[in-house]
């Protein structure tokens, strides 16, 4: 149905609701600062276009018919939504977004959420942050349930998206401190077969990347334990397991250099994880770019110092991307 074929417009709905709320056309005219004939004409035209009576004019104050009651119920919500949209447009004109839904991969929560909150106070009216796996956030982004995602999967094969790189970090081997670092593929295979190998969930991009690495080395390790969250992986390793993880995953769980766990470089075929802000193209103006610049600055002056102190052997492989 074209707009010109609709039986009402927002102006006539506003008049209709004024009559409902004030009990008479004369009172509605005073409330809207117009003449009573103008109100009567608007209601008459609305009834003609709808093909039904909206008010029972035989009683005072005016009473709604059944059709009028249905229209009032729906018109109230419709006008409220239109006012919300109008306010949102005015906020956008001044560089403020009414609502933003952001997905953040779990392993970044501790590192970025304070800086994220700081940035959003002045730029977003309502912020909703979803923590969890990048894979589920990616699906939500494409179905418009989330507006921006900070995660591992850059979704490079999906058209219509923009990407702003944030951090690059290496994968490393987390072991009990009495385990010697593996030097060769055979050492690595023996280590993973002789200790409980703790995996990230196969639902996660990190878990899938680790499996690809093991397949390249032709290391086949039985599945024993796997976790969605970095804390689950770390806790299982503290109980005697080993894992392939990253500095940020360990930073998230409060890893300390003096703990009973140590970090070793992977013996062969090292690989890295990239964390990126992804959003739909040409939405939200400069906000995604400004957010990324803000996070890069804050992480460079804060978190990077902590990571270099915790993981000096990997400091040259941890980079804030530009």
Describe this structure in words.
It comes from Acetobacter aceti. Pfam families: HTH_1 (PF00126), LysR_substrate (PF03466). One of its GO terms (molecular function) is DNA-binding transcription factor activity. It is a single chain. With 322 residues, the protein is α/β, with parallel strands linked by helices. The protein folds into three domains: 3-93, Orthogonal Bundle (Arc Repressor Mutant, subunit A), CATH 1.10.10.10; 97-168 and 273-320, D-Maltodextrin-Binding Protein, domain 2 (3-Layer(aba) Sandwich); 170-272, 3-Layer(aba) Sandwich (D-Maltodextrin-Binding Protein, domain 2). It has twelve helices and 13 strands. It has a six-stranded mixed sheet, sandwiched between helices. Strands 9-8-10-7-11 form a five-stranded mixed sheet, sandwiched between helices. α1 (10-22) crosses α4 (66-93) and α5 (109-123) crosses α11 (287-301). The two termini are 49 Å apart.
């Amino acid at each position: 149905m074209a707009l010109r074929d609709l039986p009402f417009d927002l102006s006539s709905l506003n008049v209709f609701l004024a009559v409902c709320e004030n009990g008479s056309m004369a009172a509605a005219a005073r409330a809207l600062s117009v003449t009573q004939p103008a109100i009567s004409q608007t209601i008459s035209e609305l009834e003609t276009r709808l093909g039904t009576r909206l008010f029972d004019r035989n009683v005072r104050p005016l009473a709604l018919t059944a059709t009028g009651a249905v229209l009032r119920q729906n018109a109230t919500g419709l006008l409220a939504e239109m006012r919300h949209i109008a306010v949102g447009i005015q906020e956008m004109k001044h560089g403020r977004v009414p609502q933003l839904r952001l997905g953040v991969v779990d392993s970044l929560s501790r590192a970025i959420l304070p800086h994220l909150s700081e940035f959003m106070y002045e730029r977003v009216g309502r912020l909703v942050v979803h923590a969890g796996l990048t894979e589920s956030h990616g699906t939500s982004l494409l179905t418009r349930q989330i507006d921006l995602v900070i995660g591992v999967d850059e979704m490079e094969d999906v058209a219509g998206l923009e990407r702003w790189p944030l951090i690059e970090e290496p994968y490393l081997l987390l072991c009990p401190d009495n385990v010697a670092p593996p030097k060769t593929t055979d050492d690595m295979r023996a280590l993973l077969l002789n200790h409980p190998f703790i995996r990230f969930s196969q639902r996660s991009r990190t878990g899938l990347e680790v499996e690809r690495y093991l397949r390249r080395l032709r290391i086949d390790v039985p599945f024993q334990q796997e976790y969605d969250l970095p804390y689950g992986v770390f806790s299982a390793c503290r109980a005697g397991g080993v894992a392939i993880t990253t500095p940020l995953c360990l930073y998230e769980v409060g890893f300390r250099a003096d703990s009973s766990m140590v970090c070793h470089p992977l013996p062969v075929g090292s690989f890295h994880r990239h964390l990126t802000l992804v959003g739909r193209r040409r939405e939200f103006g400069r906000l995604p770019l400004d957010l990324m610049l803000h996070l890069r600055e804050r992480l460079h002056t804060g978190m990077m110092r902590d990571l270099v102190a915790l993981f000096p052997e990997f400091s040259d492989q941890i980079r804030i991307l530009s």
